[in-house]
Amino acid sequence: xxPMSVRPVxxxxxxxxxxxxxxxxxxxxxxxxxAQDLLDTMRASPACVGLAAPQIGEPRRALAVDVTGHxxxxxxxxxxxxxxxxxxxxAAPETAREGCMSVPDLTGDVHRAxxxxxxxxxxxxxxxxxxxxAFEARAVQHEIDHLDGLVFLDRVAGPHGVFPRKVYx
Amino acid sequence: xxxxxxSALGVDQPGIVAAVSGALMELGCNLEDSTMSILQGHFAIxxxxxxxxxxxxxxxxxxxxxxxxxxxxxxxVRALHDPVPGxxxxxxxxxxxxxxxxxxxxxxxxxxxxVHGITAALAEAGGNVVDLATHLVGGADAPMYVMTLRVTxxxxxxxxxxxxxxxxxxxxxxxxxxxHPDEADTL
Lengths: 169, 187
Description:
The complex is a heterodimer. Chain A is an alpha+beta fold. Chain A has helices spanning 29-44, 134-147; strands spanning 50-52, 62-65, 80-100, 103-121, 127-133, 162-164. In chain A, strands 1, 2, 3, 4, 5 and 6 form a 6-stranded antiparallel β-sheet that branches. The longest helix of chain A has 16 residues, at 29-44. Chain A starts with 28 loop residues before the first helix and ends in a 5-residue tail after the last strand. Chain B is of the alpha+beta class. Chain B folds into 2 domains: 3-80, ACT domain (Alpha-Beta Plaits, 2-Layer Sandwich); 99-181, ACT domain (Alpha-Beta Plaits), CATH 3.30.70. In chain B, 28% of the residues lie in helices and 39% in strands. Chain B has helices spanning 16-26, 57-71, 114-124, 158-173, and strands spanning 3-11, 30-39, 42-50, 74-80, 99-109, 128-137, 144-154, 176-181. Chain B has a 4-stranded antiparallel β-sheet with strand order 2-3-1-4, with helices on one face. Chain B has a 4-stranded antiparallel β-sheet with strand order 6-7-5-8, covered by helices on one side. The radius of gyration of chain B is 20 Å and the shape is globular. Chain B starts with a strand and ends in a 6-residue tail after the last strand. Classes of the chains: A alpha+beta, B alpha+beta.
């Protein structure tokens, strides 16, 4: 049993968040600890449906997603971690509003595929392939963007696609 | 039909748009293009109105004066005379050369010169700002600046070169800058 570890989530303009992350390659003890930290940190914030390793300061290609119980979810694989994830195929783009723990003050309208096949290594080191759709597909793409040094602000649908969370009235 | 550019700015409160548009309606004006936003608690109105042939700037100002007093608005009105080349074809004043719509996203630690640096590179590359919005967020200890622009870039092989110049300007400023063509699916 690994010890519970909730890590601080970095926010922009932290440089790690705009730097492409390095491949994990093979899943060793350090990678498994990273997977557990991602899951623990994600669970510590009830609204968090996904987290990428750069968000906790680790420039490695690892992500965690859990859309359990989310109203916009259709497919739901529960909590999972992928190392070196790759999008195998994608279809059916749609636009929706999204936010990010690393960009706490803003939300944005982003165009993303709503059906996706994503492949990567699981925490046991074996290759897995997941079919995801709707909100789970959006979460996976959002987290993969983090691994490429991108946040949703880099994909918003123009100047009128960025929204302050703070409401004046 | 005479057209006028009108701007109004004041501390935000409910009823500003209703009041300004009501005064314009009373005068028989028609609101054409407009943009209205809350900027750090201030409400900003920028619009183009068309009016009956006899309406003057002075009449518009007089009609808006009670609302300006009520809401403490700074109002300015200006007559528009010359037709803008290309305005009817979609607002591209750059003549007959082919231009492409692109989007630029910029974010980074706040500093002076971000808007200037990016838009200067855009202008030098022959591009034009169509729409621009900025947000200063993150609080006083770690202020972050976010700017999103819809722009036109010279078409064809010039566009990627223009995009590269804009990215280089972002690098020089130490901000993250993505530049990508707008994709529109025709259905």
